[in-house]
User: Fold these one by one.
Assistant:
Number 1:
Amino acid sequence: MYLEELKTSGDFLSLTRNNEFSLPAQQFTLSNGTVVEVIDTGVIQFTPANYGNKDIVLSSAVHGNETAPIEICDELITAVIKEELQLAHRVLFIFGNPKSINIGERFVEENLNRLFNGVHGQGSVMNEERKRAANLEQYVREFFTSVEQGRYRCHYDLHTAIRGSKNEKFAVYPFLHGKPWKKSQLQFLLACGVNTVLMMRSAATTFSYFSSNQFAADAFTIELGQVKPFGENDMSRFTKTKNTLTALISQASIKYKNFNSSDFELFQVHRTINRTQQSFSFPFSDSAENFTGFAQGELLASDGDTKYLAEVEGEAIIFPNAKVALGQRALLTVIPMEVDERFV
Ligand SMILES: O=C(O)CCC(=O)N[C@@H](CCC(=O)O)C(=O)O
Ligand SMILES: [Zn+2]
């Protein structure tokens, strides 16, 4: 079996890439007492001998071409297995879509990050991404619910964006259905080098929304930069992120900079534009960056005969993608917002 090689190399990413769809579960204990459980391909759980009050999920490669987050998690996993990093909490690392890593694409057949919250089981379509989404949901469920109630839960789903962005790093705050947003989470994000946060205003089928909505985890999709092939990331741009994630998993607690609303750029989602027609296009080029603002009345997108015009002065684009499958999100637009009484 693979355990002896894994114990020696700590290279769980290669083991995952060499087993694209499944891997028999195995476990072993490090000399520092941390139990290492390989649950499936790309899914590894660490339980230190004396663990603290946090249950932490760190996922990457939900889209396989988003390599910088994969590199960050790969380094953390290897450091833990080689006992260069001692954990303080239970941590579940997930490389979401191994096959898509190997083909260097966002997904193989279907966007894994639109299959959560039960979508994977809807309709008659079945593919590896749908099987994976169902399995990942189960692994997260078991991770959070196999210990006593009332513990702190967080899930940071690490991505990079297809396009450049006026705000290089930004986070998507899943819709909380009226629950207050947490200043402490903004402080964590700032420590990661992320000062920009989008507040979603509707339910979603993303991995972060699943953990937020199903398990009340503090969960975000975190966009850490732009999509690049392995070896082309400037990893110096991710130092704050890696250092803060390292502190999160290896320290009992983290002292953050005092909260100051002026440190943040907050946006609320104004609307979601879905592609419904084959002839879907944007008037702007592929070089148009996330957070580019438009004048009221300016054309944002054309979906067949439907023209979408900016409704609000400065309405800004996020995640424009004219190649999405019919019925899927082709564009988010956002408008600025301020910290208010909805933040606690
Ligand atoms: O750059 C893009 O077009 C997409 C980048 C990416 O994968 N973003 C996530 C956001 C998920 C969310 O809305 O929480 C995605 O589209 O799945
Ligand atoms: Zn992504």
Number 2:
Amino acid sequence: MLKGFFNVPPAVNEPVLNYGPRSVERAALKAALEAARSQQVDIPMYIGADEVRTGNLKELRPPHDHKHLLGTFHFGDKSHVNAAIDAALAAKADWENLPWEQRAAIFLKAADLVAGPYRATINAATMLGQSKNAYQAEIDAACEFVDFLRFNVQYMTEIYQQQPPVSGKGIWNRVEQRPLEGFVFALTPFNFTAIAGNLPASAAMMGNVVVWKPADTQVYAANVIMQIFKEAGVPPGVINLIYADGPEVGEVVFNHPDFAGIHFTGSTGVFQNIWQTIGTNIHKYKTYPRIVGETGGKDFVLAHPSANADVVAVALLRGAFEYQGQKCSAASRAYIPASLWPAVKEHMVREMATFKMGPTEDFENFINAVISEVSFDKLAKYIDDAKADDSVELIAGGNYDKSQGWFIEPTVIKVDDPFYVTMCTELFGPVLSVYVYEDDQFEQIMDTIDKTSIYALTGSIISQDRYAIAQATQRLRNAAGNFYVNDKPTGAVVGQQPFGGARGSGTNDKAGSMINLLRWVSPRTIKETFDPPKDYRYPFLQKEL
Ligand SMILES: NC(=O)c1ccc[n+]([C@@H]2O[C@H](COP(=O)([O-])OP(=O)(O)OC[C@H]3O[C@@H](n4cnc5c(N)ncnc54)[C@H](O)[C@@H]3O)[C@@H](O)[C@H]2O)c1
Ligand SMILES: N[C@@H](CCC=O)C(=O)O
């Protein structure tokens, strides 16, 4: 066995490629898209060393082209959840006893595979399966995924290096970071390929074994992630990928005595149900499970009267509509001073008329489809209700069409009531609600922002007045876990802006940071005494002479 204090290559952010006309990366991506469209994949579950095919097939179709079949995946049931847990527990001893540098090597290799030979494949899968355009796929499936893997390896070494600062005379104090006893359950959302890969990988990196269930609408790219993990050398059973009905999986996982933790990203309601179930079952577990959940948002942009109207408009155009507003961080409520509104509105309406909407394979399309018919119908209903409401003014968009794909036109509505339903509820789509406040009501509007929704994920202040920036930073300190000054509220970068919100937005364990990795270990303190006493009597017990 190798012995040494090893350093890992310092993590740096993966450069974002630009996919401009005639670029090498654009050609590679176009070829990968064509290859993916020209075949139908048959996607198994991965349990232990086995690829499991049940014959209970579910179809995968691009959200922007629902007549095209990308392939099918094999849906499982409770027996497969149990099999995945058994496979994880069987792999546990070997995996947790593997020297940490070997685990590090596997995930560093996975990062290089994503950055290199799999880049076009994983981006193409994300573009087709989740309807992200080339740039949105690149910053997610390629760059953020690579960053998660490389930075987490570095944080892992930093965690292992943290040792008690003092060892008294004749004593050596040490801290060991044990993997959790049992298995970790990774439950991942549809909207970020990087998050889907990171939730199982971060727990596994720290020596845990994992059962991973992605969203049905993300299975197409999840399958590529699993191929990368396998090629990188993740041993069988360490990460088991299953597809089954969420509540059915939950019933098995949350009743299992070896359930040691959940790594969740998704909606607030689902997470709150999970937490409640875990609480009810707490006596069934061998250890108190770690509960990590990053959840929904109702993210705000606050413009101060001193703000530049173009900066505000661009923060909203990008923040609200990139990836069709399906980012937990998406700007979905804006507070604009009356003096600035005409210029902001003019800029937005003018530019939104230039948005092209359509399939991801046409690189001119800035806007693509929303993820599913369920999401489409929900968004269409909110738009219809808003159009029918006298207190709401339609500023832009408002149309939708499901004939080819789940297309919702980017929509801006202006509301008279700052607590109108679309100001409070997470819609998860390209609908931005704007409230125009009187210029002298800046302080009052911050109180309104703070109490409008249950969430506290991201938010922005846009201002050229430093006093206003300072005031908003202080007053809104609990309204967002990621706060932006003169920027849009989306696009956090691993290693630069650790990501996560509080209140109804999650446990704020900051994905892609040391804070998150600490949730997947259980420290053991070891005290060694070199010359232990051989008589129980302390000096004070001796008789005074
Ligand atoms: N805070 C963050 O970092 C962050 C990041 C990405 C997405 N999100 C949030 O995720 C949501 C969008 O993703 P989504 O639609 O995939 O979320 P979702 O909650 O519908 O699904 C998340 C996962 O939970 C599973 N699931 C759903 N219902 C379940 C149940 N009753 N029991 C067990 N499992 C169940 C799904 O199959 C999926 O794998 C939004 O609310 C968004 O804000 C948050
Ligand atoms: N981390 C991403 C959002 C992830 C949630 O969907 C961002 O900062 O935009």
